[in-house]
Amino acid sequence: MEELKKTPLVQQHERLGAQMAPFGGWLMPIQYESILAEHRWCRESAALFDTSHMGELLFSGDLVGSGMDSLFTFRISSIAIGRCRYGFLLNDAGGVVDDLTVYRLSEDEAMIVVNAGPADKDFSVLEAALAGRGLLENATGRTGKLDLQGPRSREVLTALAGPEIGEIPFFGFRRFNVLGAQVLVSRTGYTGELGYELYFEKDRLQELWQRLLADDRVRPAGLGARDLLRLEMGYSLYGNDLDESTTPLEAGLERFVDFSRGFIGREALLSQQSKGLSRVRVAFRVSSRRTPRHGYRIFHQGEPVGEVTSGAFSPMLGCGIGLGYVRPSAAACGTLLEIRHEAVVLEATVVELPFYRQGSLRV
What is the CATH code of the structural domain delimited by 278-350? Predict the structure, then answer.
């Protein structure tokens, strides 16, 4: 068994009584008080997540001349300095090696934030493609990351770093002096609420964590609440809803693909567009409080048409919700489905995303 990696805050989580479990090769907090309580606190106030398991890759060099600009489904050189963009690193077949966010730090510098599980693979793929043109560094080991999410997150950070926090645009970032050190704060997140992601020195992360939790508006939240929050928004989870055998077209995420220029996997996606899709992602709402689980089979008019990739009970909607892949003939909004597993049979209806629409994301 491979030894699990640990974030700088593992002792803090244990002191708070967190339930710990493996995730993406890391030992991570799943919940503290309860998943539902932490979910509710994020929707109503400000929840603090340890996301130091995420990977950070730093690139410096000529973005265009190095070939870096053609490795993703979007053009890094068109991102304004101080802004970031979401998209994909694909394989030659158009499958998703990882979904990621790129931060444009300067004219010739970028930070690529990747998922924990495929982080080492991402680095190897990019390093091989660059072939020494430019400098690529895996900074995960020396970078700590926290997510402060919820409608009161701006108030909390303004008290800590100043009113300039309120000037950060959606998918923008700025650097601030906090506790005597530089912290990169971006207005991004994975919850559907107003929120920020904070990149800080690994050795100082414990101090920042404790300072934020000293605020009565803030409580810690684990990956259980984070997963439920993202699912209510219909955000994909790598390893469940996205993987190397799934393309952005099948996942309904073609808006994050710029076909006007070359990138790895472009020809495969164009071919798939031309031939038509054999499966597509759908969102569905269950007619009861029962939870559709990953791997449950999806039926339409008595015939098997696909499989659930993510599912949960939604506290905000009061019913089960889920994502899955089905034949295109069963994907139209309003289509009636059955979710089955052994003796379990759940009635469901295909709906539009997001499931939850009352969040503070763009406030």
Answer: 2.40.30.110
